[in-house]
Design a protein that fits this description.
about 100 residues; 3 helices; glutaminyl-tRNA synthase (glutamine-hydrolyzing) activity; GatC; nucleotide-binding; Histone, subunit A; flat; about 40% helix; mainly alpha; two-stranded antiparallel ribbon
């Protein structure tokens, strides 16, 4: 399957990434290889293969949910650098 440089540029812009022309050429080639490989999967004969939802016959053994007493607010906040009104106070990182 062919993928164009414009496709790669569009994908990069959606991901808010900037690439040089050399990198775009490289990604165009790599994406084409991946898509060609995926296209080969469509050629696999799965006529007599039953659908599987779980490869291994394994049932998850989960523990029972038991409500336990947790830490108090004071215990949780004692290691915080700064807190206010019973909540963590964080530095502003986005303008």
């Amino acid at each position: 399957m062919m993928i164009s440089k414009e496709d790669v540029k569009h994908i990069a812009s959606l991901a808010k990434l900037k690439f040089s022309e050399e990198e775009i050429d490289e990604f165009t080639h790599k994406f084409a290889e991946v898509l060609d490989y995926v296209a080969k999967l469509n050629e696999v004969d799965t006529e007599n293969v039953e659908p599987t939802y779980q490869v291994y016959d394994y049932n998850q053994r989960l523990r029972e949910d038991i409500v336990k007493e947790g830490l108090s607010r004071e215990e949780i906040l004692q290691n915080s650098i700064e807190n206010q009104w019973g909540y963590f106070k964080l530095l502003k990182i986005v303008e």
